[in-house]
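W.,

You were right to be curious about this one. When I first looked at the sequence I had no strong expectations either way, so I just let the prediction run and decided to look at it fresh. Below is the sequence, 54 residues in total, followed by the output.
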Amino acid sequence: MDSRESYGLQAADFVTNALFRARERGDWSLWNVVRENVVMSQKLYEVGQTEKPT
């Protein structure tokens, strides 16, 4: 699917890119914009954890 045809895909791409830039490059500017609109957040893994929690 071409992302120009799907606003949902564009939004998902923006959010994942914002999180990538924050975590990998230390650039939190885009994530701070996204974070203001997050309704629910849940940690799935802890730092250094390689397996799913039981």
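Here's what jumped out at me. The chain has two helices and no strands. And, maybe more interesting for your project: The helical segments are 7-25, 29-35.

Coffee later to discuss?

I.
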